[in-house]
Amino acid sequence: MSANLLSAGKDPMGAAIADFFRHGKAGRLRVFSSQFDEDEIPVASLFRTFDEMPALEQKALELAGGRILDVGAGSGCHSLALKKMGKKSLAIDISPLSVEVMRERGLDVEQADLFDEHFCGEFDTVLMLMNGSGIVGKLSRFPDFFCRMKQLLAPGGCILMDSSDLKYLYEDDEDGSYVIDLAGAYYGEVDFRMQYKQVRGDKFDWLYVDFDTLALYASQYGFKVEMVEAGEHYDYLAKLTIR
Ligand code: SAH
Fold it and tell me: CATH: 2.60.40.420, 3.40.50.150, 3.60.150.10, 3.10.180.10. Which one for 50-186+202-242?
């Protein structure tokens, strides 16, 4: 397992976060994918406060306790909200520009890849939010992921992760059935590439996973999973603990 840190020249989301943090506004953070049409992430939304967060994220922050690891922390919005709640977290991200911003925001932060074994620690809560399962990348990476979690979780600790079931993208308008190629790759495995101004990132894998598939992998690798709350649109918050 090698560290997969970004360099500043290939860190579009970090560049957008840094721009917004320094100037109170940012350009377009463009998202490309081989599966979807071009899209955009509103950069201001990466700076959401507790009150602006979706209910599932608020729930996760309320449940988080002890030593908290905020994985793929971005602008640090969740860690900042936790701090306001009097909770302590360590934020990690592979993005150097985001890490710099989080440091300036007074957070405890480290530039690290979750999958790099050099990153170690013991945490009571591992937070993975904003389709946090994305960082796992592909279903085939779940064994590595659960192995890392066993290294990082304190006894009795848990992972709080949100995700979405993308099956709604394949719904037949006429009869409401789902048209999914079951012989193909899992429908929640997607790829993205981002661009901010002239900064183009590399393509990366991102996993959306339905609850049943998550539960299947979790049980195979020694974890229990519980649906904490279902969201309004095929999304959910799951809590995973070592069995
Ligand atoms: N959690 C934040 C940001 C979500 S975007 C929020 O909700 O606003 C996903 C973040 O995960 C990006 O900042 C990206 O740089 C980071 N990331 C992607 N892969 C990672 C990995 N393997 N380890 C740590 N961070 C990662």
Answer: 3.40.50.150
